[in-house]
Write a structure and sequence with these properties.
It contains six helices and 24 strands. By secondary structure, it is mainly β. β20 and β21 form a beta hairpin. The structure holds beta-D-fructofuranose. The site of beta-D-fructofuranose has 15 residues, from β2, β6, β11, β15 and β20.
Length: 434
Amino acid sequence: AIIGLSAIFTPIVSSSASAKENLETYNWTREDVSNLTINAQNTAPEIKKDELVEMTSESYIWDSWPLQEKNGHPAVVNGFKIIFALSVPNDVLPGKRHDTAEIHYFFSKDGKSWESGGPVFKDGDALGSRQWAGSSIVHKDGKLQIFYTATGDKNETQLSYDQRVATATADITTTNTSVTFENWSDHEIILEPDGEYYQTNEQTGPEESSYAFRDPYFFQDPKTGEEYLLFEANSAGKLEDRSYNDEYIGSVKFRQNHENPESSKAFNGSIGIAKASNQGLSKFNILPPLLEANYVNDELERPSVIVKGNNYYLFAKTHSEKFATGLHAPEGLYGFTSDSLFGGYQPLNESGLVIANPTDNPYQAYSWMVMPNGTVTSFVNYVNVDGKDIYEIGEQSPDYQMEHFGGMLAPSLKLSLTRNESKIVHEKKQGVFK
Ligand code: FRU
């Protein structure tokens, strides 16, 4: 009988990682977003900029990420914690920072006082005319690998918006007081939009507000050991070629009483994923998106995933004005959960909303990043805006922008996650990633 058992069991267990990867893309629906409530569990405490400290007095920083172990936990290298951040000198107009962004790094032994290491890359090495967000890991042999967005073309004379995922590796060298990166590899483009799952720049029409193929996030699935990059993208195709699907909107019952304006078709944000096919993490196979927000949202930025117990928690950040016409939702962190990486997602808290900026300080923080233990970091964006729409003010009011922009790390938050619910538990200090 004992011999017979294994003979019975072997053929039945057929779930391989690749079978699971074929599962359906999850649709974040207009119905989900309509379930949204703003409450004490998801509203961040007000940020008081005057009480905060800058890591550097010369530059602004925004999207930030720590050096991570492959399991997602912040790494410590010879006693040093290391943070990467998009940066520009602080005489650049905050609204213009994306045009000249560079990746800088900071290191610290106590996690409180940070030393600036300056630009991560040597002059001229990085791809793109500027570099946008990414993630950084340390390999077992101690090597740094950074994944980043190469935006625009290296020697362009006019700003362009092509986005591709790039990578490079280096040795991490430390002394008692310093961290440097040496022996850089060549920089390589490893992912570009394919036009079939992910929209290319050419497929993006003038009536669409944005195009994205950026913000690579490394993830090793603890259940399978497989390695992936998640990224921000848009559903493929030209506006006129993308078809409508009832499932983008919600249930039959919801659709009966819901108006879905034609203009919401241009909103096609997605969370993409690609699977590593070599150990050096330079070759990836592009897979169908984990999530699409067609008719719902246009920009699902800096996606990432953590695993708690049996559950995957998938996160992305977005702005109020990136929600399609007819939907009302705050600038914030949104999340979804499933017991498998591919498919079966449900929005957290019914709608997806996890962290909202407070209503009277609606742009105070952005670019939240959830660490495996539930600590969430972000940066200070625009504070004390007196009900003004900061994106409308845009470039017209330089002084206003300068005065109200933070450009520094925000106090971290602690998030608790239980099944399909989340809750902001308390505030932590700036620079706490663990
Ligand atoms: C989020 C973001 C990212 C992008 C970067 C560009 O704050 O829009 O998606 O990589 O900023 O500055």
